[in-house]
Amino acid sequence: MTAQPVHVALGSEGATSAPTTPNDRPADGPAGARVLAAALAAGLSPRVADQVAAFARAEGVTGGRPLVACDLDRTLVYSSAALGLTVPDDQAPPLVVAEVLHGEPLSFQTRAAQDMLAVLADVATLVPTTTRTRTQYARIRIPGRPHPYAVTTNGGHLLVDGVTCPDWARHVADELAQAAPLAEVVAHLTRVRDEPWVRKLRVADEMFTYLVIERGQVPVGYVPDLTAWCAHRGWTVSVQGRKVYCVPATLTKSAAVREVARRTDAGDVLAAGDSLLDAELLSSAVRGVRPAHGELHETDWRAPHVAVTTRSGVMGGEEIVARLLADVLSASGDGTRLETRPPARA
Ligand SMILES: [Mg+2]
Asked: Strands across the sheet with 269-272, in order?
């Protein structure tokens, strides 16, 4: 699916309290009370349960066990450079390490986000949905692990209990044949490989490629020119932090998530993400949420069914989990409808 971004006029940006989007209907009293009770029953602290209940909706998800597809970087987990904390150090939230590289902590989430995510993984099929390669994904430590399903390499790999699904790999190979070959794009990027603003040129799982750059030193016009060059070849460009991704347009997170939804006979699909590569995932979901930072925020990407967090950085990540959990718990009534068993594998 190649859904186009939907742009609507900016509302009161920078508001400090929900709701932030026209569809973001505040909960009525019973919905808030219901979600609060369910969050407390799930073991969340009163403070965190209150945070979830603040995003309760009168109308929750419908159908069977919901599927929640979540991007990782700058959506669920944050590098130290991406934390974006604005409070004095002595008021910073407790953080937990979500990734270790070479023995050093690399990515984090707040403890409250981790607590809420643990509940979310229990009441929904939580599908980590990332542009990371399989190797990069394997380093991530978030609740629900090992996740029964995960999408890596921007949809290139569907992991079932951590193992690549060969059927999906064959399907992706057919899809990739519709775009220009990887080698052609890599050769194009190689032209700038020795420029002082380029740190690395990488190929991900033999499916797409990216540059690691020095932000602020990239020549004006390079990314637009690259985007146009790629568009003529069936590829898309996304800038995320210090990486400039070139990805075949046929390689999408949403296609892999639809396959997981089919295999699990899922109810509503919810999604969260921050980059242009997440736009089609958010567009295809019944409901979505994006943070008030990142590529989508910088381009003011909006859709009627996608909420925008009031906070940014790692606190925005915490709010994303609160909103997703509230959506799921809003449908749970007195809690008896919650299915806490893991989904059946297909
Ligand atoms: Mg991201």
From this structure: 125-128, 67-70, 269-272, 287-290, 306-308
